[in-house]
């Protein structure tokens, strides 16, 4: 059957109708998807704007260095909280980083067996444990046994959050070092641990540092595990065996108070915390992601904080 | 002299320092397993009194009374609160995240990269700051612009919108949770969508598909497992999230936490722990009850995460196979 001119026109009309509808649907979906992106960006923008706008009015030299004043007076500052956050970050890194790095070395250098596969899997699962459960664990292991709140308990709880992230990123970055480097080391007759520490790690350094700093920025904002381990206090650090303050804890306690002045101080503390955390996070990403010729740029861009 | 040296060096045998190194690395690797075992054991043994007292009815009871002499604990209301808030957060957050993943996976790197980075920044903001923002900024607008209109329109006819909107309720907490799971879900979905072989997409385009039809034909069927895994991973995050929820959910206890309206306060498992843990005395049943809540929470979270990991890794393994072929 030959196609007549009339038929051809008929087909064309049908086609146009069909395509028009499909293109309209396509366009609608594009708009919806784009608005998804906008909806996700709005809260981020709003959080940053509000924290900076409200926080900046609270910040002063006294606010950053003094102990909190009496409740509701709006006097005093968050000195102990800033100090406490720095102490707890330092201590938990002291526990978490060596374990995480060694664990990463195990997974990457000796990681071709069933044990390592099991560990890798549970590492990933452990990373998603609710942080408050880890806090309770630290409470049971340390606070309950010692009989008092302890800075060590807080550091232990945060190190539990930290080490799987460090292990994961260490493994990923060690694996990116070409195997020929290791073979060259072996050919020189070096011992395996010398090869690992002197050759492999020095090649994977920037990736590992990124992972460690991102895990620091993660634990810096953790509140839940600190409630039952270091409790919070309004004094400067005096001993490992008494409660200590930390910025997230202070923000939480301030937000529970019904005074406007407390709310303002809460915003001020939030500003300090967000500057510390986003500072580390952004700084690391920007610095390493833009390093020319770095094989770790890819790793960083795909997001190292365990979201693969 | 030289010959002797060669002889004495133990050719083919590992030096002792290497053995120590290997043992050390293995120990650090095993640390995570030891911690998981210890953690589970500790939670079970410390919450034992409450199981002894109530048996499994601890899970199904709705009372929550910490007054001395009249102690009575049941975890059901908080399981309810956790599941309802997480489910709502998923219902809001997952479509948004998948939309974002579609946009970023399809956009040119110049736009997609920075956008993905901005979305990931959402994950870097501490939970307590979400809580603060939700409490003092978001709640105010949300009550006026969303909850009150919903209440006025459907308050009388649909039971979930009844009750006077105040802002410290299930819906507010769920929306904040949804915002918090967006980075996780969209990052994993993006990875999964990138794993779809390019040939499949091109084949769809060649059939004359529009972009949306290409997604429907080539991307979604291929990445279904991975997308479900990504969503479940987000669910795991939502279930374990503490601070922001504690600050926004209104903290009702006991039977009051089971509510039929989205505009009533409730309580999740993690928020009851955060609220009451410090006040609980180890001598009474209060502390074992809270540890029991933590145990239930942990079991739910582990189940969710194991399922999610298996789904996502299976998906990404398929990708490797496809590329190698």
Primary descriptors:
heterodimer, A: mainly alpha, MetI-like fold, 2 domains, 12 helices, disordered C terminus, B: 325 residues, mainly alpha, two-stranded antiparallel sheet, flat
Separation of the first and last Cα atoms of chain B: 56 Å
What would you say the CATH architecture of the largest domain in chain A is?
Orthogonal Bundle
Structural class of chain B: mainly alpha
Unreliable stretches covering 5 or more consecutive residues of chain A = 292-296, 302-308
Order of helices and strands of chain B: HHHHEEHHHHHHHHH
The major beta sheet of chain A can be summarized as:
none
- In what range is the share of β-strand residues of chain A? under 5%
CATH superfamily name of the largest domain in chain A?
Answer: MetI-like
Total number of strands of chain B: 2
Gross morphology of chain A: flat
Q: Estimate nothing, just give the exact number of structural domains of chain A.
A: 2
Broad structural category of chain A: mainly alpha
Largest β sheet strand count, sense and barrel closure of chain B: 2 strands, antiparallel
CATH topology of the largest domain in chain A: MetI-like fold
User: What's the CATH class label of the largest domain in chain A?
Assistant: Mainly Alpha
Largest sheet: spatial strand order of chain B: 1-2
N→C terminal distance of chain A:
57 Å
Structure description:
The complex is a heterodimer of chains A (308) and B (325). With 308 residues, chain A is mainly α. Chain A has two domains: 1-58; 61-301, Orthogonal Bundle (MetI-like fold). Helices cover 75% and strands 0% of the residues of chain A. Chain A has twelve helices and no strands. Chain A has helices at 5-58, 61-65, 79-109, 114-127, 131-146, 151-175, 179-187, 192-220, 224-227, 247-256, 260-289, 297-301. In chain A, α3 packs antiparallel against α8 and α7 runs antiparallel to α8 (192-220). With 325 residues, chain B is mostly helical. Chain B has a domain at 78-271 and 305-324: Orthogonal Bundle (MetI-like fold). Chain B has 13 helices and two strands. Chain B has a two-stranded antiparallel sheet with strand order 1-2. In chain B, β1 and β2 form a beta hairpin. In chain B, α5 (76-106) runs antiparallel to α10. The longest helix of chain B has 39 residues, at 286-324. Chains A and B meet through α1, α3, α4, α5 and α6 of A and α2, α5, α6, α7 and α8 of B.
């Amino acid at each position: 059957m030959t196609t007549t001119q009339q038929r051809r026109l008929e087909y064309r009309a049908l086609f146009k109708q069909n395509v028009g509808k499909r293109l309209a649907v396509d366009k609608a979906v594009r708009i919806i998807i784009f608005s998804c992106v906008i909806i996700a960006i709005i809260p981020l923008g709003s959080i940053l704007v509000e924290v900076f706008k409200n926080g900046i009015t609270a910040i002063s030299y006294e606010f950053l260095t003094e102990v909190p004043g009496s409740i509701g007076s709006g006097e005093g500052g968050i000195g102990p909280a800033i100090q406490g956050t720095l102490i707890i970050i330092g201590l938990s890194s002291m526990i978490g980083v060596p374990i995480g790095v060694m664990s990463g070395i195990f997974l990457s250098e000796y990681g071709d067996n069933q044990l390592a596969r099991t560990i890798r899997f549970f590492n990933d699962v452990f990373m998603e444990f609710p942080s408050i459960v880890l806090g309770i664990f630290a409470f049971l292991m340390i606070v309950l046994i010692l009989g008092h709140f302890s800075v060590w308990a807080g550091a232990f709880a945060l190190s539990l959050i930290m080490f799987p992230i460090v292990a994961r990123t260490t493994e990923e970055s060690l694996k990116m070092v070409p195997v020929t480097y290791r073979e060259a080391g072996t050919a020189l007759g070096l011992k395996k641990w010398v090869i690992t520490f002197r050759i492999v790690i020095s090649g994977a350094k920037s990736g590992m540092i990124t992972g460690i700093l991102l895990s620091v920025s993660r634990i810096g904002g953790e509140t839940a595990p600190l409630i039952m381990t270091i409790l919070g206090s309004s004094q400067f650090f005096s001993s490992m065996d008494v409660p200590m303050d930390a910025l997230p804890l202070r923000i939480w306690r301030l937000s529970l108070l019904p005074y406007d002045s407390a709310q303002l101080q809460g915003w001020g503390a939030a500003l300090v915390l967000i500057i510390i955390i986003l500072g580390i996070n952004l700084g690391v990403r920007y610095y390493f992601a833009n390093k020319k010729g770095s094989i770790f740029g890819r790793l960083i861009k795909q997001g190292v904080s365990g979201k693969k | 002299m030289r010959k002797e040296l060669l002889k004495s060096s133990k050719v083919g045998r590992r030096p002792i320092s290497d053995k120590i190194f290997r043992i050390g690395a293995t120990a650090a690797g095993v640390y995570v397993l030891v911690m998981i075992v210890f953690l589970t054991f500790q939670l079970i043994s410390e919450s034992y009194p409450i199981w002894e007292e109530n048996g499994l009815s601890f899970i199904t009871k709705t009372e929550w009374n910490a007054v001395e002499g009249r102690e009575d604990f049941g975890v059901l209301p908080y399981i309810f609160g956790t599941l309802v808030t997480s489910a709502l957060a998923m219902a809001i957050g997952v479509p948004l995240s998948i939309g974002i993943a579609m946009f970023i996976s399809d956009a040119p790197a110049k736009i997609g990269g920075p956008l993905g980075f901005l979305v990931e920044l959402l994950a870097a903001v501490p939970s307590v700051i979400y809580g603060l923002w939700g409490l003092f900024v978001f709640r105010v607008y949300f009550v006026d612009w969303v909850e009150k209109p919903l209440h006025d329109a459907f308050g009388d006819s649909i039971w979930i919108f009844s009750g006077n909107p105040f802002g410290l309720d299930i819906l507010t907490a769920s929306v904040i949770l949804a915002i918090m799971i967006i980075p996780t879900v969209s990052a994993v979905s993006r990875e999964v969508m990138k794993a779809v072989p390019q040939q499949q997409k091109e084949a769809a385009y060649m059939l004359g598909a529009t972009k949306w039809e290409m997604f429907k034909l080539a991307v979604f069927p291929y990445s279904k497992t991975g997308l479900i895994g990504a969503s479940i991973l987000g669910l795991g995050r939502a279930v374990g999230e503490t601070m922001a929820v504690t600050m926004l959910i209104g903290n009702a206890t006991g039977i009051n936490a089971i509510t039929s309206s989205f505009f009533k306060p409730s309580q999740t498992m993690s928020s009851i722990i955060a609220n009451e843990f410090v006040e609980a005395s180890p001598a009474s049943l209060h502390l074992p009850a809270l540890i029991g809540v933590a145990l239930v929470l942990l079991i739910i979270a582990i189940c969710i995460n194991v399922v999610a990991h298996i789904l996502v890794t299976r998906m990404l393994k398929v990708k490797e196979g496809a590329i190698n072929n």
